[in-house]
Each structure stands twice: as structure tokens, then as C-alpha cells.
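Sequence only, no structure available. Ideas?
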Amino acid sequence: MSDLSAGAGESPSGTDPADGVMRVGEIGFDAPRALLARHGLALVAVEDGMAIPGSFWGDSEAGIIGTTVYARADTPVHSLLHEACHLLVLPEERRALVHTDATDSIEEEDATCYLQIVLAEQLPGVGSSRLMEDMDRWGYTYRLGSTRAWFEQDASEAQAFLRRRGLL
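Reply:
I predicted one. C-alpha cells follow.
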């Protein structure tokens, strides 16, 4: 089980490590839109400076309403994938009911984190390694100290959950 927190914090040097995460504008909307469509989800681009509908965290974080993911060019790729994966780990009948907050289940949260790393491989120019680095930069925390350590050594429950749902 992971010990997650999502949100960026400042480093002791005063620079925010989250500034270095890959943003949707760097890869464009076409590849993520196609990836989400293969899984029955829609991606809606939100204009720069506008509030992102269904965003739990606000600011540049992706949002979800029903089977639609909302993002801006400044949305972190990991955020877009995370919110999309929240929808994917849910049974279809629950997806339509989602507005902003997809789950309060640790099991679903862990599965979401694992799946976002797996799906990052399907986005040109992203990949799992970069996504895990960005998750660490953003402030995701795991008891083994890094996203990669959790993914490689401590995610058997998330893998089992995803296998039961036919997502791995």
C-alpha cells in the first residue's frame, strides 16, 4: 500500500521541483486524446487561464466529470493520466456518476497510480520512467521512498486489483 500525497512543495533552495514536470502542452492533446478514447474516455482541452472543470486540486490539475477528463496546456501529464486512471479503475456504472472526486479507496488510489505509469508508455515522448520522475517531483510519496521503488517492489496489490478488472 502506498502512502500518497499529491501536491508540489518547495525545495530548500526555494525553487519548486514541480516546475520541471512535463506538461500536456509539451506533447499536445492528440496522443492523450487518442489514448483515452481507446479506453472509452474523452479529453477536453480547456483554454489557458480558465478554471478546469472537475479539478479536485484546482490550479493546473486535471479534472473529471463522468467519462470526460479536462486539462489545459499547463496541466501536468501525470495529472491528466492520474485522473483518467481514476475513471478507468472504476466499474463502468460508477464512472457516469463521478464529478471531481473519483474515490476514497486506498485500493483504487494505488491501482490508479500504477495504471498511470503503465499508460505513460503509450504516450510518445513520455514513458514510464519520465512519469515516475515527475510524480516524485510533484510530491507523490511512497513508503519505499520513490515512485519507482513502489512500482517495482511494493505494488503487488495494485497489480492484482488491475488484473481483476482486466486492466493489465
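The CA atoms of residues 111 and 161 lie 7 Å apart.
Hope that gets you unstuck.
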